[in-house]
Amino acid sequence: MFQEGHKHSPKWYGRMVGNKINLGKKHTSETIRKRVNSRKGYRHSEETLRKIGLGNKGKRVSKESRQKMSKAKKGKPSPNKGKKASLETRKKQSKAKKGKIPWNIGLTKKTDERVRKYGEKGSITNKGRIPWNYQGGISFEPYGIEFNEDLKEVIRNRDRRKCQLCEKTELENEEKLSVHHIDYDKKNNDPDNLISLCRSCHSKTQINRENWKQYFKSL
Hints:
Blueprint: H1 10-16, H2 29-38, H3 46-56, H4 63-73, H5 87-97, H6 113-126, H7 149-158, H8 170-173, E1 178-181, E2 194-197, H9 199-204, H10 209-217
Antiparallel strand pairs: 1-2
Domain Nuclease associated modular: 23-39, 40-56, 57-73, 81-97
Domain HNH nuclease: 150-203
Region (Disordered): 1-101
């Protein structure tokens, strides 16, 4: 029985319970668009989010369901492909993550089973593939004998112990800065060809090399 003041009438409820008339039917793109727009800006309360989290805790998607989801997405480009998040969106994402500690920080394959499993999965998936940014093995070429720790310290001090791309200091990065060869020639250790970069920015310079050459030469 319905409680007094219930928003759904018994007549409406009777039509809905056990009604399979819409089973298998798909909404039109126009209907989906209207439903999406009607929910725009809506946020669940903290209490609702907590309940949803508790309800999903420990649940695992079955292998069959994962295969169906994979099949449904196969061949379809990502809806976000080629899209760049606005500055406002990036600020919101940054604010949401601030103060949150990554679950895997400080964990290794030896100390945590999950990290080991993720590593093994990635290894199997990428086995036999040539990385898209592979440069033919030039990263293994030897550096010139003068490219030692003394020279690196000279460059770091010259650059005020600050990454010349993102401007974060060694103190903020909690490690020494890398010293990058602007022209990618490991034997050209002229101080004008060397620049201090943090680990993250240094990794970015491994692609679009010509662009980075021009950029650093213009500084």
